[in-house]
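Lab channel / #folding
Pinned by the channel admin:
"Please post every new chain as: sequence first, then the structure tokens as a reply. Keep commentary short and put observations after the output so the thread stays searchable."

First post following the new format, from NK:
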Amino acid sequence: MNTVPRLDLTTVRDLVRPLHPVASVYLGLQPPNPTLDTTEDLDLRWRLVGAALARQGADEATVDALTRHVTTLPVFPTELALFAAGGEVRLAQPIPGVLRFDRAQFAVPADVVPLLAWRQRHPAYVVVVVDRTGADITAVPDGAVAGSSSVVVGPDDEIERNAPGGWAQSRYQRRAEDSWQHNAAAVADAATRQLRRLHARLLLVAGDVRAVQLTRERLPQSMRRELTLLHLPGGRSPDGSGAARQESIVEAVDGYAADQTAHLLDHFTERDPGRTVEGAAQTLEALAAGRVATLFVADDPDDSRVAWYGPRLLCAATADQVPDGDGWSPSSGRLVDVAVRAALLTDADVRVVDVAAGRFKDGIAALCRYSPTP
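Reply from TO:
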């Protein structure tokens, strides 16, 4: 049974929108001492997290709300993201496969970079397991590890290529081939609807070789140009291939997500310099102007650089770039979190890149929607 809810981008955006402090807590995969009993270990780890939040100014009601949530968990958590403010837990999101160690922050903006890194690894996709009669289709939205399933029953049931011999043999074969094509068209139509509904660009297909071929040929030409189509093992009949297929799905989705990030990084390298920015000052300037289409950031929890923001200011790299307050005063926050907040509030994509790559100046860069006005 899946226990990981879908992480919607609107939810992440709502976490960073407020201008009041938010407690951002990540429970990692590894306990500090593997010999401890899990209950004792969680209690120890949580006392350290609570103390860290208190040192950063977290109010008692917010820490208590988080404590109540953690202590009532039915099972020991592996990797879990928690956000709270004003004595209320705003989000509790499992993020398996992202963090190894605990971290906690009470600040503005909320620390959502690991949350976005997990979501980035879970793009929308559609799985089609097809045979000559129809297909089983599973549609998984972005930010989710499971989706909804449906069954497509083809309109034709004459699927056997009988070989009676004589003059009727070719007629039977044509009928069967026609039925396969009609059924494949129905499967392709259903898959296309799901791909468009989810804005997905990844299609995973398994099943009868001829049925897979016919289904692929009947996808709209415009969609095939944008689609990544990968084959999975096994067929639709209960042949014991389910477990292997599930492993292949995980590998295919992971690979696709990594390829998407690599493609964007290549696009950054190849793009006209007027449409790219690099380094803290230039990137935050582009974010403040709403020019950024994709923001690249590295997730380094030890990065303590600051940037500025406020009620009438998305972001600024230094205090001297802040305009006159006119009754309001700017605040400072961790530079990466300020940049991510500005990107999310201007509908820009955020891509979390490997901190060890050292690809960008200051570990931050962006692809822009348009060049600056001369």
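NK: DSSP finds ten helices and 16 strands in the chain.
TO: also worth noting, The longest strand covers residues 88-94.
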